[in-house]
Write a structure and sequence with these properties.
Blueprint lengths: L6 E4 L5 H12 L3 E6 L3 H12 L5 E5 L5 H15 L4 E4 L14 H22 L8 E7 L10 H21 L5 E7 L13 H11 L8 H11 L11 E4 L7
C-alpha cells in the first residue's frame, strides 16, 4: 500500500490504458479521481471497480480541451479530495490525416485535447499538489517516428514531450517529478480505429523483437512506477515502452 492516503487524478481514466493505470494506483492504496467525456456507464463501472479496492474514487465529466472546463474539474477534485498528489495526463484525441492534409479542425482537436490539456492541467493541478508530487503524461512513438495518417496526433505528442522537459525543470524546486511514457503499439480498442489496423498489427509483430503487441498492463506498470517514490530521481524523461520496436 505504498500510495495509501494519496490522491491521483487520471484524465481519460475510465477506459483502456487509463483505467488500468487508475486500477493499479488503487491497488497501491491511492484514492483516484477519473475524468471522462463520453461514456457515463464506463465511468460508473470504473468507480465501482476502484471502490472495490477499498479506496475513495469519483468520476468527473469534462472536455479537457476546453481550459475553462478543465479548471472547473480540477477545482472540483480539490474540493472533494483536498489535494492532488499524482496527476496522470492520459486522455487523447485526434483525427487521422497526413501532414499535407491537416486542416484547422484536425490541428486544433489534437493540440487542445493532448498538448494544451497537459499544459493547463499541470498549471491548475500544481496549485493543489504538495511538494514531492508526481506528474506523468502519455505520449506515443508517433512523436518521433513517421506513422501513416498520424501527423496531427504525432505533432501534439511531440509537444507533450517538450512540455515534459520544461515543466520538469520549472517544478524541480518543489521536488515534483514530471515524466512522459511513450507507448509503442498497445493492443487496445483505441488502436483498432486505425484505418489500416490489420496490416499495421502484422508489421508491428514482425518488427518487434518480442514478436507481439504490448498490453495495457505493461504500459500502466511503467506509469505507476513513475508515480511512486521509487522514481524520485527520474524527471524530465520520456520512457519508451514498445518491446524494442523502435530499435529497428
Amino acid at each position: 500500500m505504498e500510495l495509501a492516503g494519496k490522491t491521483a487524478f487520471v484524465t481519460g481514466g475510465t477506459r483502456g490504458i487509463g483505467r488500468r493505470i487508475a486500477e493499479k494506483l488503487a491497488d497501491l492504496g491511492c484514492n483516484v479521481a477519473v475524468n471522462y467525456f463520453r461514456s457515463r456507464d464506463a465511468a460508473g463501472e470504473t468507480v465501482q471497480a476502484l471502490e472495490a479496492r477499498n479506496v475513495r474514487a469519483k468520476s468527473y465529466r469534462a472536455n479537457i480541451g476546453r481550459i475553462d472546463k478543465l479548471d472547473e474539474m480540477v477545482a472540483a477534485v480539490g474540493d472533494d479530495f483536498g489535494s492532488i498528489d499524482i496527476f496522470i495526463s492520459n486522455a487523447a484525441l485526434g483525427l487521422f490525416t497526413t501532414a499535407l492534409e491537416i486542416d484547422e479542425r484536425a490541428w486544433d482537436l489534437s493540440m487542445r485535447t493532448n498538448a494544451q490539456a497537459l499544459l493547463f492541467g499541470v498549471q491548475a493541478v500544481s496549485k493543489l499538489m504538495p511538494d514531492g508530487g508526481k506528474i506523468v503524461a502519455l505520449s506515443s512513438l508517433g512523436s518521433q517516428r513517421y506513422i501513416p495518417g498520424y501527423a496531427a496526433i504525432g505533432v501534439s505528442k511531440a509537444a507533450i514531450e517538450t512540455l515534459t522537459r520544461y515543466l520538469a525543470f520549472e517544478l524541480a524546486s518543489r521536488r515534483i517529478n514530471v515524466n512522459a511514457v511513450s507507448g509503442g503499439f498497445i493492443d487496445t480498442d483505441a488502436l483498432k480505429v486505425f484505418p489500416n489496423y490489420d496490416d499495421m498489427v502484422s508489421e508491428v509483430v514482425r518488427r518487434t523483437p518480442f514478436g507481439r503487441m504490448g498490453t495495457p498492463d505493461e504500459l500502466a506498470d511503467v506509469v505507476v512506477f513513475l508515480s511512486t517514490g521509487k522514481a524520485q530521481w527520474i524527471t524530465g524523461q520520456v520512457i519508451i515502452v514498445d518491446g524494442g520496436y523502435s530499435l529497428a
